[in-house]
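#structure-requests
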Amino acid sequence: MEEQQNCIVDGDCIEGLQALRANSVDLVFADPPFNTGYQYDVYDDKLAAAAYKDWSKDWVAAVHRVLTATGTFWLAIGDEYAADLKLLSQDVGFHVRSWVIWYYTFGVNCSRKFTRSHTHLLYMVKDPVSFTFREQAPENRVPSARQLVYNDKRANPRGRLPDDTWIIPPANYVGQPIEESDGGLAAPSDDQQTWTLRPQDLSARFQDQEDTWYFPRVAGTFKERAGFHGCQMPEQLLARIIRCCSDEGQLVLDPFSGSATTLAVAKKLGRNYLGFEISPDYVRFGCERLASIRVGDPLDGSPEPLISAPSTTRSQTKRTKKRAAATDNASPPLDAACLDRQTAKRQRDLTYYGVREAFRRTHEGYSVDRVVIDPDLNLQFQDSCNNLGHAGDLRTWNILLFRLRKRGDLVDFPTTVRTSLSWNDCDAFLFASEIALQQLLDESAESLDEVLCDPLCAATFDDLAARLAPGYSSLQYRWAALKLRKQAAVARTRGSVLSAPKRLGRPHPLDEIDWQGVPAKPGMYRLSDSQARTYYVGETLNLHNRLTSQFAADTARRQWRELTEGTLRLETRLTQTCPGDMLAWQSCLMRRYETSLNYRDLRASL
């Protein structure tokens, strides 16, 4: 349910899951209490074994109900109940695809047994045949040893999927030892990978007191390997799961939100998210964390898997110098600048996706133009973009929406509700939209799109237009400006054919004109001063309506005096203008007279 997306619900997860619509969630990641006696702020993690398993079966069954037919369930669990929860999940109806081991160094120290240095990650689906697994997506693949060590032509150029034993450092951890080419140890750099090309290169990570052991298979040049694990849920681990098992825009749910890491990663990766949490403090903390995140922001911790890897020490390979050089030249390491560019591109792509989704939710059958220039629709569009958590502001999102249309990425959202504003409808205030637009173009704006996309600039445009022709809506002023721009090219070509008369008629001072005597017929007019400086030329379907609206009232003439100098004079001439020919004569007059207030793009070429 859309009203239950992109938030943390304060309450018990079983009740919350039961309130959701069945088959509405695409991916669930759960890191429940392990029943080890840890005292949370509002929950004592110490139940009798039977009670813990009964409770676990209840919430797992609730997860199964809300997952879509192709949905995926990941469960993080400790040693004590890993086997039990696997079996009860299967009883509920889940099918286990992988039992992943997350290995980490600096695990929980144990006095009379091996140091705990892993967490179990059970990967399960509802349907063993039909499920989401994005194995071909480049961001979900890592390079193989055949690619970067052995220069083997049989290597798949797209890389391979990661192993089911993961080594991902704890989030924000500093000083974890890594193997250097000279055998020494050093703190990891920011570009440390989330995978290892060859586990034997990291043999120093695995200590004999740890409880994750690695025994290699005997095959070719392979040496001993070891498994991997971590001590807290880092963003990179969750990113691997979310990227592989969900698509952008799908819903990711965490029944035990905690510090909201699952939700934070889902938001960064362009997914919708939903969490449940019984601690009010954790809800508040999680909401604050989510509010500071934008879709596409970089993930914390080591970077995503990339088709690049550090060199292996010479003692661990038997490559010839020629083969080594070929390999090194073929795949240079990715530096920080390259990683930044890739992250920035990813954020741009996700933002485009989110703007498209926000338009889908709010356009109500209207065109892109209508959504941008209609204040009510644009506010709904802004709220949707904010709800989806995208970087930028309304000006940015409006601009991206126009770009999406230009790229043809909105063709599957046809305009079914037309916005109708005829030339007759806007004739009385068309001049106000034109002058307001040109004033902004003269001052700072580069185009009409910039005026309309920037809410502050658009509000200024409305104010300028309303001063000259009060009583109309923002939508009317803005739509008239769109009509001007759209008609400009046609008006210029038609205006180049016309021949402007030397004089339109006898000039009359504005204060002396009998406005009631102005004919209600099509015509053109020129506003100038006693020095013959031309300020504005216009064309209208009804001279009487246009000129009385533009000049008859004392307040209107005062506005014009602020825009001009000297005594203003008006001359008019009747035409045979019909709606289909609007602005052709105006374009022609702009070619003859150098005006200061007309929209420049209407000027016919010589």
